[in-house]
Structures are given as structure tokens and as C-alpha cells.
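Format notes (please read before filing issues)

Several people have asked whether sequences and C-alpha cells are stored in separate files. They are not. Every record keeps both together, in the order shown below: the sequence lines, then the C-alpha cell lines. Line labels are part of the format and must not be stripped during preprocessing.
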Amino acid sequence: MNITIDKNDLVKGIQIVGDIISTRSNLPVLSYISLETYDSGIRINATDLDITITHELSANIKEPGKILLPAKKFGDIIKEFPNDTVDIDTKKNLTIIGNKQCQFKLRGLPYEEFPTLPKISGQRVIKIDQKDFKEMLSLVSFAISHDDTRHVLNGVLCRIENDIVKLVATDGRRLAFYQRQIISKQELDKAVEIIIPSKTMQKLNHNLDEGQIILTVDASQILLDLGKTQIISRLIEGEFPDYKQVIPPISSNKIKIGRMQFLSMIKRASLLTTPDYHAIKLEILKNKLIV
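Then the structure lines:
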């Protein structure tokens, strides 16, 4: 492989895929990222076996090829590289990074040692505006459980039917539910209902920006296509609690209060909570709310 690529683009690409790499894995190859050329650029891949992230970058391809490089070391080298463009030349497992002014030699691994990248065979495809999905995630993600004993709650329930998208998250004590009508109806033979892991949602949220996100779903995996970045993740198997039973019916007893005013009241009252007693008390007297 012999390529020339923009330094800043490469730094960003390594950051996007390297976000899921763990140095504490029992498989050393999972601390590596793969680089492979295609028609007009390169693809960078990283995986932790549950989530796989692929990012595409434009590059000047002089000679096609593929290689595995240690993610942290490679990223540190590119960050500190003095020029705006980087030359990368691979001979077998040795990669030369640099030019006449500055040069690094980095030992890699054969591409064949990288775990096989998952493929999605599902025919259920959903298109959603990225900004809409990012806003929906921000409104429910706080309620995701982090208790490993209730694995099914460690994610977000996503239900899509026609032009309605619903997201639900709960940790057993609180529940967040949000639904939104999207612009175009989805061509689905039946409603899609899946549980997407919280780690996947976190990585997705970091990369949502402009344009559409395309979700492709099969029995056990989901592909989240953002254009230049694709995320493939396993889904959480199991039955999500019936959130409809938790949501109280419509009541005639309602009060309205300014959101920021209410938030500041809660913050002041919570100053006097203790580690043993986190609650605050709300008391309603005619047209007054006492916290």
C-alpha cells in the first residue's frame, strides 16, 4: 500500500473508529485498526466484537493494499506529524510514515488476522434525519440502566412504524419516552422493534451531524449508516418491559411552571439532601408550588 492523505482528515478518522478500542482486551489484535484502500480512498476499521466502526477517507492511491496498525501508536504519530499531508508506504508488515523531513517506521500485522467484519443481510431499511435522531437520543439517554444484572435495560428500545419513531429507556426507577413523526413513511412490511445497546447509542450520538441516517436491521444486528461513517452493532436480545403500563393515564390535575424556574428551585432544595436521603418534597397549594 502506498498512499498520500490529508493529515487532519486522518486524525479525525482515527479518532472516530478508535473510540471503541480497548487496551484491556484479551485479544491483542483488537487494539489495532485496519487500513484498506478502495477506488478513491481508504477505509479505516475498528471493532470490539460487539461494535464495528468503519470510516472512509479520500486519499491519493499510488498502490492499493491493506494493513493492521496499532491504533494508539499510529494515532499519536499522525497527530504529531509536522506536515499537512502524510505519505504511508507499506512493505509487507512494515509501514513507513513520513517524508524527507520526518519519518517513522511502524510494525503492523497481516490484514488477515483482523476479525471478519460483520455483514448485514436485513431488508428492513429506515431513514431518519440525523438532527432529529440526535435530539431524541438526548431526551431519553439519561434513563438508560447501567446495571449488568438487567441486561435488557442497558439500551434504548427503538420502535418504528410507518412515519412514527419511538424511543424508550428505563433503569427500573425512571422511564423516558419520546416519539416523533418523521417526514416520509417507511416501506416496512411490519413494525420494527429493537433494543440498541447504550454503548452503540453513545458512539452514534458522537457522530450524528447533517443529512440522513439509514438504519438497516436484521435478526441480531443493526447497521447505522451516516455516509462516510458506518456503525454495525449487535442488538440486545430479550423482552423490554411494557412501558405503556408505566405511563400514567391522562389526568385533569395539572400544573404549569417555567422549566428553568423549576430546575433552579430543585437545585437550591437539593443542596440540603444527604447521602442517605436524596429526595425533595413538592407541595401544591392552590396557585403555589413549594419545594
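For reference, the curators noted about this record: The mean pLDDT is 89. The first strand starts at residue 2 and ends at 6.
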